[in-house]
Amino acid sequence: MESIHGPNNGPIDRSRALEAAARARTVLHDEALHRVLSSGNGHEIPVPRQIFVNRNLHFSRVELVGFDMDYTLAIYHLRRLEELSYQMTIERLVTAKNYPPEIRGIPYDHAFVMRGLFIDKKHGNLLKIDRFGHVGRAYHGRTALPDEVLQTLYRNERIRLKNPEYAWIDTLFALPEACLYAGIVDLYEGVLKRPCDYTVLYDDIRHAIDSVHRDNSLKAVIRADLAQYVFKDPELGPALHKLRSSGKKLFLLTNSAFDFTRAVMGYLLDGVVAEYPSWRNYFDYVVTDARKPEFFSGHNPFHEIDQTKEDNSVLSEASVLERGRVYKGGNLAAFEKLTGKAGESVLYVGDHIYGDILKSKKTSMWRTCMIVQEIEDEIAYLESRKDEITTLAEVEALQARLDDEVQRRKVKLNQVERHIEKKDGDEALLEEEFRVTKAELDRVRKALKECTSAVKIVEQDVETGFNKFWGLHFKEGPENSRFGEQVEQYACLYTGRVSNFLFYSPMHVFRSPRDEMPHEHAGALSGKMGVMGSEGLPKASLRAPTEIP
Hints:
Layout: E1 3-6, E2 10-13, H1 14-28, H2 31-37, E3 52-53, E4 57-58, E5 64-67, E6 75-76, H3 78-97, E7 118-120, E8 125-129, E9 135-140, E10 143-144, H4 147-154, E11 166-168, H5 175-189, H6 198-214, H7 217-224, H8 226-229, E12 230-231, H9 236-245, E13 249-253, H10 258-269, E14 285-288, H11 294-297, E15 302-305, E16 314-317, E17 326-329, H12 332-339, E18 346-350, H13 353-363, E19 367-371, H14 375-384, H15 386-421, H16 427-466, E20 475-476, E21 479-480, H17 482-490, E22 493-495, E23 509-510, H18 518-525
Parallel strand pairs: 5-13, 5-18, 13-14, 14-17, 18-19, 19-22
Antiparallel strand pairs: 1-2, 3-22, 4-23, 6-12, 7-8, 7-11, 8-9, 9-10, 15-16, 15-17, 20-21
């Protein structure tokens, strides 16, 4: 019996593998099965409401599901909240940091900032980088850096998160500070004609916006008009109820204090589902003031909150975590010990790359789901431009083929020239071969030039059509952006809102696409790249470079 050897698993029965492949093909071509699958018994989840998978997750094995609150369970009306935060930060800079009152006239521009940008505190620039840390776009103030300046500053520079010269705009809360930073740089260097210490400016803005959050002045305004700032998702309560009904336990783990948590969660969930008169009925454990990301690596004890008071006062240090009670502080090790749930039996859902996703992934085996509020708009936009994206992928494939053909014909032309010079062969035949090869080279070069120009124009049109300053969230040119790379690397799942779990069974198996390295992808396409359609384009299109990963 023929056998082959796997790299780690010893002999593999070749005949059994062939039989299994034959059975698989039978299933693939089972017409009766396809009629059943297409009979309408299934359901199509709208793409913007889907949960996307980076790492396989068997939901049936998850026993405890945790949620952050801000921008996770509580989805804010972004522009309203950003404008509020922006104006309050400006006032704090004027009154507490003695900034000139002219900064009050700097307008907030939601389109100019997006999550995933970097602030270069040394040069006063805003940057967007790809997954390798290379800068793709840069603005000084609100002026795009010319290519030659960008190359001079960043050609040999790889942007690293740990470098203190850079600050990452990794939360939605931080968008106003990036916009204000650029606006003040413009004001100082343009209208006011005064020097600007870019590092001090960043530190002052960061301190001002932190103080607005710390002293609860921002949250007091939100609490006074929750409907103005918090989106009330009618599907949130049913989604949480569905998870609980399947036997899963739920917990809330938020950095917000209890008084603000109680107000927001009550607004979102009280009385939404008959079985849960209070928002606390949904959760087996409630932890506020968690101080993430320190929660995941620190040793702070849990303290029980006095729920009868509004001042977030504590009763005592907690040695148990009980349903119906509320706690503050704590740490991951104690949480796992007190709940009896750890590792892959826990799924944590949050919006913050570092505080919720990256840190929990690096310090525990918890599974992770990231809420990316911006994704629904990006998916809708990509759908509206799918024809251009398909064309872009096809032209890029042809561009690569043409580039190879130029090099091949240049080599051939050089060889023929050498034969002619050495009079090595029939002169007439060599001259004719030279003429034909030169004509082919000229035609391929012309096509390559046209394709290269088309790729650049179409790619720029697709990207700037979404955001004229920064392009797409998840891409920087043909590469994933640093933001997209972080989502892919640290979030097992990602989606636009928590209520999207309503569309999935609690027993669902979330399966990620099969990963392919370039050599695998090349092998799969090797037979297709040379097949040209009637219009001269490859019939097989590659994955569009602007797709969400």
